[in-house]
Amino acid sequence: MEYASCKPSHTLGKSYRLAEKKDLEFFKDAEKHLEKKRKELFDKWGTDPVPDEIISTPDGKEYAPGGVLYNFTPVVLYGMTKWGDLFNFRQKLTLITFVEKVRQAHEKMLEEGYEQEYARAVVSYLAKGVDMTAAFTNMLARWENTSEAIKQLYSRQALPMLWDYAEVNPFSGSSGSLETGWEYYAKVIGHCIQVNTPPATVKQASAISLPYPDDYFDAVITDPPYYDNVPYSDLSDFFYVWLKRAIGDLYPELFATPLTPKTEEIIDSLCLLRGMPKGKAYEFDDIKVKRKEDFEAMLAKAFKEIERTLKPEGIASLE
Fold first, then answer.
1. 170: helix, strand or coil
2. Closest of 108, 83, 119, 124 to residue 246, by C-alpha
3. Distance of alpha carbon 261 from alpha carbon 276, whole angstroms
4. Dist CA 30 CA 22 (whole Å)
5. Distance between CA 173 and CA 182 in Å, rounded?
6. At what angle do helices 116-136 and 89-111 cross, to 10 degrees?
7. d(C-alpha 281, C-alpha 58), whole Å
8. What 8-state DSSP symbol labels residue 227?
9. What's phi and psi for 219, nearest 5 deg?
10. pTM higher than 0.70
C-alpha cells in the first residue's frame, strides 16, 4: 500500500508528495499509543472507548462468514463487523482523544461554576463536531479529485467497501477536520441566536404513539420513510456510538440502548436481506426483518396519530 500527502500550494491548487519513511513510522507508532490510551480510558469509563458495537445484521449477531447481512452493509463481508473496525489505529487514537476532551470540557465548566444546562449545551455542540469529524476520519472516506477534497463515508445511503481511502489531518482546517466542524456549528449557532422567536421544544417520541392529547397541533409537517429506500436507524448507528461515548451520560434517556432502537422503525427491511432466501426469513425466530405489509401497517398507525392529534382546522403536510 502506498501513502501520499498533500498540502496547499503557494500557487493555484495543492502540491502532492509520496509518503516518506518517517510518515510510515508515525503511522505505525499510533498502534502502541492507542493500546495504552484505550486501556486508560476503559479503566476510567468502564466501557471500551473504541466503538465495539456490532454493525447490525438481521439476526442481531456479529456477522460471520456465511451469515445473513443487509445489502447496505457489504463491508461486513470484508471483516469490518464492528463500528470500530471502520477506523485505523491513528484514527481511533485521534477520535477517542477528542471524546475524552469533550468529557473533560464538561467537567471543567462545572468546576468553574457554569450552569449545568449551559455546560451541557456547549459540550453537545462539541460532541457533534467530533461526530462529524469521525465521518471524515475513517477507512471509508474517499478522495474526490475534482474538488481535491476528502468526502465523508456516506456518499450514498450505504456502507460499500472502499479499496483505498483518504485520511484527513483533523487539525488542518481542511474539509472534514475538527476545526472545520467547529466552525460549521458555530455558524449555525450564530444564525440561530439572531432569530427573534421563542425557542422550539424538541422531544423524542414514536410516530405511532404520540404523547399528545387529541386536537393538539395546528400543523403537522413530516417526511415519511419509503419502504426500503433508507435504513435510517442502522446507518445512524455510526454517529450514535460516538455520541454515546462523548455525551451519553448527559442524555441517558436518549442513549439507553446499545444501538439506535429499531423495533418500531417504519421500514421494509426484508427487501434488504442478503445471505438467505427472502421467502424463508420468517421461518426463523431470530431473523428480525419487516415486510412490506409491516411497513404499511405501521405507517397507517402513524397517519392515524396525525389525524388524532391534529386540530380539525389544522394542516398536515407530507413531504
1. coil
2. 124
3. 24
4. 13
5. 10
6. 170
7. 9
8. T
9. -155, 150
10. yes
